[in-house]
Design brief:
With 191 residues, the chain is mainly beta. It is built from 2 helices and 14 strands; from the N terminus they run E-E-E-E-E-E-E-E-E-E-E-E-E-E-H-H.
């Protein structure tokens, strides 16, 4: 569960089984319930949860059943984290972050170093005061039965898309555009 912005208290949890962000919240990091005879109880976000995806199935749907999905690990670069995974052989670098001075916004950069065949990606149900803005080649946002999805088309090698999730009153198209200004490939090269 990376803490994306310690000043504003933005945090997320990434699930390597579903290749999705299960929870995003603002506030304190994690609250642990009391202990009894050495056994911990549940841990949960301590703050305002504003993205929660209870679905435990794979968060990606292709033109046919996706059978090859792999989590490769993550990279740290200063305060940034980049998750690395693949879907049907397409390598994806996925970096969540939160702007330093803006409360209520979660940004994601998805980079496709080898291209992408296209798929639908589940973001999960969002509260009514949140919306999604994207920046990239033909990416569309769709809400089906209260669940927000991204339709990501076939992309050329090196393509990136930006995703901004946040409060309707503060979110702009510029947030998603800003998310694509960073080369995730550069962050994963080490030094």
């Amino acid at each position: 569960s990376p803490r994306l912005n310690s000043e504003l208290g933005t945090s997320i949890t990434f699930d390597p089984e579903t290749l999705s962000y299960r929870v995003a919240w603002e506030g304190e990091f994690i609250q642990f319930d009391g202990f009894r005879w050495g056994t911990p109880r549940n841990a949960r976000p301590k703050g305002e949860v504003w993205v929660a995806d209870p679905d435990d199935s794979l968060a990606w749907i292709g033109g046919s059943q996706i059978t090859d999905h792999r989590y490769h690990g993550f990279y740290r670069h200063e305060q940034r984290v980049v998750f690395s995974y693949s879907i049907e052989g397409s390598h994806i670098l996925d970096s969540p972050w939160s702007p330093k001075d803006e409360k209520g916004i979660l940004l994601r950069t998805l980079s496709f170093p080898d291209g992408f065949a296209g798929a639908r990606h589940r973001l999960g149900p969002l509260p009514n005061d949140k919306r999604v803005v994207t920046f990239g080649q033909g990416v569309a946002v769709r809400v089906v039965d209260g669940v927000t999805w991204l339709d990501i088309p076939k992309l050329a090698a090196g393509a990136s898309i930006g995703i901004a999730i946040g409060e309707t009153s503060v979110l702009s198209d510029g947030h998603a555009r800003f998310a694509t200004n960073l080369s995730l490939t550069e962050l994963t090269r080490g030094g």
